[in-house]
Amino acid sequence: MVKIPAGTFTMGSDENDDEKPKHQVKLQEFYLGKYPVTQEQYQTIMGNNPSNFKDNPKNPVEEVTWNDAQEFCQKLSQKTGKQYRLPTEAEWEYACRAGTQTRYYFGDNGELLGEYAWYDQNSYSKTQPVGQKKPNNWGLHDMHGNVCEWCEDGWHENHENAPKDGTGWNDNHSPSSSRLLRGGSWNDEPRNCRSAYRVYYDDCSNYDGFRVVSSQDS
After folding, report:
1. From the first residue on, what is the mean pLDDT of each consecutive set of 10 residues in the chain (218 residues)?
2. Can you tell me whether residue 24 is helix, strand or coil?
3. Upper half-sphere CA count for residue 216 (Cβ side, 13 Å)
4. How many CB atoms lie within 10 A of CB 162?
5. Whole-angstrom Cα distance, residue 9 to residue 22?
6. Quick one: which of 141, 96, 139 has its CA closest to 117?
7. What are the φ and ψ backbone dihedral angles of 119, each rounded to 5 degrees?
8. Contact status, residue 58 vs residue 197, Cβ threshold 8 Å
9. Which DSSP state fits 107?
């Protein structure tokens, strides 16, 4: 887990309608997983590995639904005595940007993405072991590419009326509502791996994984 400092940032972008409007969000300190949850970690807590790409236990777990990720957090909390959950969308983007306002945490040039992410042009059409690419300024790996990451929030079509305090946005959302993913995957083109890029999904695929948040160091 990596300590993410309290602070304020500008969330969103002008590139896609669902990333508008750009707005200020103020967040409290929290701790975020340095990497996406791996297959061996998921196996240890859940007793199974649903992943499609099982060639390396250090690969991120995938083929997990939002509800699977929630259950993992609950069981991890019970096992450790500390509270774990999914990051909110605002927490995820704030942590990904790590003090930047560029398209990616390393700048605006998508041609450099291969140094920082596994995506459609370098992934060999599969997930890769976590932590192999350069981290962002706060020491987080794989925030771009490898697997899309579930967030706590339900899907909203844009950022209009989004919370300004970094909390999750779950108004009127049922357990079956579409849920939000961030970061792009091994199968995505560079523009879909941007810090502000957002997408939703109702089920699971071999593109989808997650990482966890805690208010405590661990």
Report:
1. 97 97 97 98 98 97 96 97 97 98 97 98 98 98 98 94 94 74 97 97 92 85
2. strand
3. 7
4. 17
5. 10
6. 141
7. -145, -170
8. no
9. B
- Strands 148-154 and 23-27 come out as unpaired
Distance CA 88, CA 15 (A): 21
Nearest CA to 18 out of 148, 162, 177, 147 is that of: 162
Alpha carbons 74 and 70: distance in angstroms, whole number: 6
* CA–CA distance, 19 with 37 (Å, rounded to integer): 26
Identify which of 112, 114, 111, 88 has the alpha carbon closest to the alpha carbon of residue 4. Answer: 88
Using CB atoms within 10 A of its CB, is residue 43 exposed (0-12), middle (13-18) or buried (19+)? middle
Q: Please, where are the H alpha helices in 56-202?
A: 66-80, 89-97
Model-wide pTM > 0.90: yes
